[in-house]
Amino acid sequence: MIKIKNAKVLRKGIYFRELNILLALIILSFGITIINPRFLSSFNLQIIARQVAIFGLLAIGETLVIIGGGIDLSVGSLVALTGVLVALFMKNGLSITISILIVLLISSLVGLWHGLFVTKLKVPPFIITLGTLTAARGLASVITKGWPIIGLPERFFFIGQGDIFGIPFPLIILILFAFIAFFITKYTVLGRQLYATGGNIEAARLSGIDVDKRRIFTYVSSSFLAGITGIIIASRLSQGQAGVGGGYELSAIAAAVIGGTSLSGGEGTILGTLIGAAIMSVIYNGLILLEISSYWHDVVMGLVIVTAVTLDIWRKRKRI
Amino acid sequence: MGQELILKMEKISKAFPGVQALSKVDLEVYKGEILALVGENGAGKSTLMKILTGVYTKDEGKIIFKGKEIEPKNPHHAQQLGISMIYQEFNLVPNLDIATNIFLGNEPKRGKFLKVFDIKKAFKESEKLLEMIGLNISPDILIKDLTIAQQQMVEIAKALALKSELIIMDEPTSALAGKEVAKLFEIMKRLKNEGISIIFITHRLEEVFQIADRIVVLRDGQRVGELTCEENKIDEVIKLMVGRDVRVSPRIESKVDNVILEVKNLSSHAIKNINFSLRKGEVLGIAGLVGSGRTEIVRALFGADPKISGEIYIDGQKVEIKSPKDAVQLGIGLVPEDRKLQGLILSMALHENLSLPSLPSMFSNGIINFKREYKLVEDFVNRLRIRTPHIFQVVNNLSGGNQQKVVVAKWLALKPKVLILDEPTRGIDVGAKAEIHNLISELAKEGIGIILISSELPEILALSDRIIIISKGKITGELRREEANQEKIMQYAII
Amino acid sequence: MRNRVSRRPLTQVFKFQRIQEIGILLILFILSLFLSIATPTFLTSTNIFNILRAFSWIAISAFGISMVIITGGIDLSVGSVMALSGLITAMMLRANLGDFLSILGGLLIGAFVGFINGLLVSKANLPPFVATLGTMSIARGFCYGLTGGWPVRELPRSFMFWGQYDIPILGIGIPLPVVVMIILGIVVSLFLNRTVWGYKIYAVGGNEQAARLSGINTGRIKLLVYTLCGLLTAVGGLLMTARLGVAAPTAASGYELDIIASAVIGGTSLTGGEGTILGVLIGAAIMQVLRTGMVLLGFPAYWQPSAIGAIIILAIMFDQYRKKKMGLLR
C-alpha cells in the first residue's frame, strides 16, 4: 500500500536545487566582498535590493512564460515604453493612479497580443516578441524624440525611491508579486495546468486543459510585470527615458534559467527564479564595483546566459 | 533449404532497466530467403532488429554476417555492411525528390574538393532501381506527393541502392490496402529471386503464410519455435506466440443498459459519415487496419481534431464538443494511442499526472487541497495496483505497463460516463496486459460505456459486445459478439 | 495511383519551386508599380540604385540565414555580427594593417562568431534562438567595449571603394555591392542545389531523423551553416561599413528582423527544409522597397519596425496556410 506518510520528507528533497544556487549566490557575494569590501555597505545593499526588484519582477514573468513552453524577448523594451508612457500621461495632467492603471492595461494588452499570435496564429514566440522588442523601443523613442520626459509629480517618486522601515519600496512590490506567483504555481489548479502545458502540450490538451488560455495568461503576466517594472524604473530615475531596460530580457531569461527553469518548458520555481535574479543583480553590481566599463556588460550578460543554459542542458543529459 | 547462410545471430541478450528484453535468442537467415519474424507486441522482435541494425548494442552474443563477425555501430554502419531496415514510420525527407532520397548519405559525387552532386547519375540509377521494383514514376517527383505505398517502394529502392543483401521490413503491410499488399509481395518475391534475403516482421499471420519461407516465433524475449510455411498452421503459430490456447480471458458479462452516447454523421479530415451508438456498460470495439481512420473517429468525437460535420448526443441530449475540454466536462475520457506523446506529461510526477483532468472539478475555487489530492491518487494507485515506490515518482521512471495504468487512472478519477481506450495494451508486458483487460471488464460492469480500439483482434474479440470495422475512414461492417471472428473482421477491414 | 502524382519537368526539380517565386516576384512588381504611381521619386535611377545598394548587404546576410533556417535553426546574432565585423575591419584599417589583412580579419571574426553559434547549437544542444541571443549580446558588447562607444571614422579610400564604386556595365553604373550580392547569390545557390552539402542541408531540415539514419553527420552540417551564415553576414557588414564610411558600434541594430523577414518572405519556412536563394533575394528586395516606400510616402520612421513585424507575421501565416493546405500540418 502506498502511504502519504513520507510525503513531507519527499517534498523537501525538491528544495535541494534551490539550496545549490543559494550557495552559489553566497560564494559569489563573498568573492566580490573580498575584492571590494564596499559590496557589503548598507548603501550598496540598498542598490542591490532595488536591482533585485527589477530583475526579479521581470524574471518572474519570464519564468511563467517559459514554464508554459514559450519565451518573451520583449520585456526590456516594454520596460522602456511603459516608463515613457507613464511619464507622458502624468505630464499631460492625468493623476498618478490613473496613469499607472492605463499603463498596466496597455502592457497587459501587449501580452494579450503576444499570446494571441502564439496560440491562434502559431507564430513562434521568439519572433513575435522580437518584433515587439524592436517596435516598443522604437515607439518609446518616437514619444520622447530622444529627450527624457521630466518634471513628474514628487509623490510618484516614492514607488522607486521610497522605503518602508528601511526596506526599499520596489523590494516590497517584488515580494508581493513573488508571493502571488509562488502561490499560483504551487497551490492552484491554474499553476498545475501551466506546468502540464509546458511539459507536454498535446497531453495537456487531451486532458481537457484549455492550453491556449493558459499560454495567453503567461504572456499577459509577463507583459504586466514588465509594465510594473517600467513604472518603478521611471520613478527611480524621476523621468521617462526611452533608453532604459536594454538587454533586460537577457537578464530576466538568465535569472530564470539559473534558478532552474528549463527552456524546454514545464519546469521551474519562483523561489529559484528569485535567487537567480539575486545572482544576476550581484553580478551586475560586481561589474560596477570592480570598475568594469559598462560597455562590456552586454558581453558578460551574454556569457552568463549561454553558460547557464548550457549547464542546464548538461544537467538534464546527465539525469537521463 | 540447405542454402548458403547469410546471417547468424547467436545467443543475443539485451536488458533494459527493469526488463530482460531478449535472452539468448538465435536467428539465422539464408541467402534469398524470406524469413517471417512473429510475436506479440513486446516479444522482442524490434529489439532484436534494432541490435542487428546498430540502434542498440547487445549485452551478449554474436552476429555473423556473410561469414564474418560484425558489430554494427549505428544504422548507417549496418547499411554499409549490407543490412538495411525499412521502418514503420518512413525515413524519407518529404520535400526532396525521389532520386535525392534514394541516394541520401550515399550520393554519387563528381569532383574532389567541391563534391558536386551528380544529378544525372542519381537519376539514371534511380530510374533503374524504380523499374526493378516495378514503380513506374519519374525520380524527380517530391516524396510528399507520393502515396504511402509509393513511399514504401522508395524506401525499398533506397535499400537496393545501398546494395543491401539483407533487408528488414518492419510491418510493411500495416498501412497498405489489399492491392498494394499484393504488389509489395510481388516485389519481395522479385528481390528474393535476385538473391536478397528479407526479414519480414508482421502481425498479420495470413500474410506470413502467403509469402514467407520460414517462420521464427519470439515470446517474452525468447525464441520459442520455428516452422516452415508449408505446414500452414496458423493455430500453431498463435499458440507459440501466446504460450497458451486462449490469449485473453473473455470478460464477465455486464448488464447492457440504455444508450448513453450517440454519434451521427461524424466527419473530419480523415473520416466520413460515421454513425454509431454506445450503451451503458457496453464495450464497443473498433477494428480496422492501421491508418484506416479508427483513431481519427475518436479524436473527432473527443474534440481533438476539428469536425467537418456531425452530431453527438449524450444521454439523449445534443452536445457541442469543440475541444477536449468540452469532452472532459461531459464525462468522456480518452486513453490516447501514444502514451508518452499524448497521454502523459513525462516530466511531471505520478500524482500530478493522475489528478490532472480532475483538478478543475475537484477544486472549484482553484486552490489545490493537497491532502484530498493525495488521497485520490493513492486510492487509484492501490486500486489499479500501480507499482511505484511513492506517488511522487516522476512518471518517466515507471515501466510501460504502469505508465499506461496511470493514464487509465487519470480518467477513472474523473468518474467518466464514456471511456475511450485507443490501443490500451500496446507495448506493455503480458501481466500488465491481463490486468488492463480485467479492468475493462470491471469498468463495463460498473456501467461505464467503453470504446475500445485495438490492432490485436483477439483482444477486440474477447472484450467487445459489439464490433464496428473501419476501412478508409468509413464504417464497413458491424458484428455482434456471437457472430464475430478474425476472418470476418479482416474481410470488412480490407474493403 | 500514377496519375494522382503531379509530374514536374526535370528542370524544375531542384528547389526552384518556381510558382512560389513567381508569386512573390509579382508582389514585388505590384508594390513597385504602386509606388511609381504614388510617388514621383520612386522610379528614378538614383532611387533604384539606392534601393539596390541598401538591400545588397541585407540580402547577402539573408543568404546565410536562409541556410540556417533551412536546417530548422535561427540566428538572431546577425545584426550584431554585421556591426562587429565592420568594426574590426575598420579598427584594423586604422591600425594601418592594410586592406587585405583588415578585410580578412573582419570576415574571420564573422565566421568565428558563426562557428561559436554552430558549436552551441550542435554540440551543447542549446535551442538556436537562445544560443544566438547570447552571442547577439556578446558581439554587440564587444562593439561597445572595443570602441568605448565611439564610432570609427576616416577609413581609407581604397576600402570605401568597395561600397561606393559603380561598375559601368552597358553604360549604367551598377553599384559594386550589388555585383557582389549577385555573385554570392549564384555561388550560394549552386552550393545549395548542386553540391552534396547542399542536399544534406535540406535533408537535415526536412527530416533530421532520416538524415541521421542515412549517415549524415547532422552536427557537422549545422556547424557548417552557422559558420557560413556568420561569414556571409560579415561580407554584408563590410559592404555596409564601406558604403557608410564609418563603423559605429550601434550599426545594424535590429537588422536581424529585416534579415529574417527577407528569408521568410522569400519562402524560407521557419519549420525547416524549404527555401531558395532566388526567393530570399526577392524577399530582401520587397523589404527594401517597402522601407523606401514608407519613407517616400512620409511614414514615420519609428513605425517601420512595427510594419516589418506585421509583414513577417503575414509571411509566416501564409506559410502555415500553405502547409495546411498541402496536408503537412494537421
Description:
The complex is a heterotrimer of chains A (320), B (495) and C (330). Chain A is mainly alpha-helical and 320 residues long. Chain A has 14 helices and two strands. In chain A, β1 (163-164) and β2 (167-168) form a beta hairpin. In chain A, α4 (75-91) crosses α11 (211-237), α5 packs antiparallel against α6 and α5 (96-120) runs antiparallel to α11. The radius of gyration of chain A is 20 Å and the shape is globular. The model of chain A has no long low-confidence stretch (mean pLDDT 89). Chain B has helices at 45-52, 75-81, 98-102, 119-132, 148-161, 178-193, 205-211, 234-242, 294-302, 324-329, 339-343, 350-355, 359-362, 370-383, 400-412, 430-445, 457-463, 486-493; strands spanning 5-16, 19-30, 34-38, 60-65, 68-69, 83-86, 109-110, 116-117, 166-170, 197-201, 214-219, 222-228, 259-267, 274-279, 283-288, 309-314, 317-319, 332-335, 418-422, 449-453, 466-471, 474-480. In chain B, α4 (119-132) crosses α5. The radius of gyration of chain B is 24 Å and the shape is globular. The two termini of chain B are 36 Å apart. Chain C has a single domain, classed as ABC transporter involved in vitamin B12 uptake, BtuC (Orthogonal Bundle), CATH 1.10.3470. Chain C contains 13 helices and two strands. Chain C has helices spanning 18-38, 45-70, 78-94, 99-122, 128-147, 157-164, 176-194, 196-206, 208-213, 218-244, 255-265, 277-296, 304-325, and strands at residues 166-169, 172-175. Chain C has a two-stranded antiparallel sheet. Chain C is globular. The two termini of chain C are 23 Å apart. Residues 1-16 of chain C have low confidence and may be disordered. Chain A binds chain C through residues 71, 73, 117, 121-124, 126-128, 130-132, 134-135, 137-139, 141-142, 247, 250, 253, 263-264, 293, 295-303, 305-306, 309-310, 313-314, 317, and chain C through 74, 76, 120, 124-127, 129-131, 133-142, 144-145, 147-149, 254, 256-257, 260, 270, 300, 302-306, 308-309, 312-313, 316-317, 320.
Topology of helices and strands:
The complex is a heterotrimer of chains A (320), B (495) and C (330).
Chain A: H1 7-13, H2 16-35, H3 42-67, H4 75-91, H5 96-120, H6 125-144, H7 158-161, E1 163-164, E2 167-168, H8 169-187, H9 189-199, H10 201-206, H11 211-237, H12 248-258, H13 270-289, H14 297-319
Antiparallel strand pairs in A: 1-2
Chain B: E1 5-16, E2 19-30, E3 34-38, H1 45-52, E4 60-65, E5 68-69, H2 75-81, E6 83-86, H3 98-102, E7 109-110, E8 116-117, H4 119-132, H5 148-161, E9 166-170, H6 178-193, E10 197-201, H7 205-211, E11 214-219, E12 222-228, H8 234-242, E13 259-267, E14 274-279, E15 283-288, H9 294-302, E16 309-314, E17 317-319, H10 324-329, E18 332-335, H11 339-343, H12 350-355, H13 359-362, H14 370-383, H15 400-412, E19 418-422, H16 430-445, E20 449-453, H17 457-463, E21 466-471, E22 474-480, H18 486-493
Parallel strand pairs in B: 3-10, 3-11, 6-9, 9-10, 15-20, 15-21, 18-19, 19-20
Antiparallel strand pairs in B: 1-2, 1-4, 4-5, 7-8, 11-12, 13-14, 13-16, 16-17, 21-22
Chain C: H1 18-38, H2 45-70, H3 78-94, H4 99-122, H5 128-147, H6 157-164, E1 166-169, E2 172-175, H7 176-194, H8 196-206, H9 208-213, H10 218-244, H11 255-265, H12 277-296, H13 304-325
Antiparallel strand pairs in C: 1-2
Helix pairs in contact in C: 1-12, 2-7, 2-10, 2-11, 2-12, 3-4, 3-5, 3-10, 4-5, 4-10, 6-10, 7-8, 8-10, 11-12, 11-13
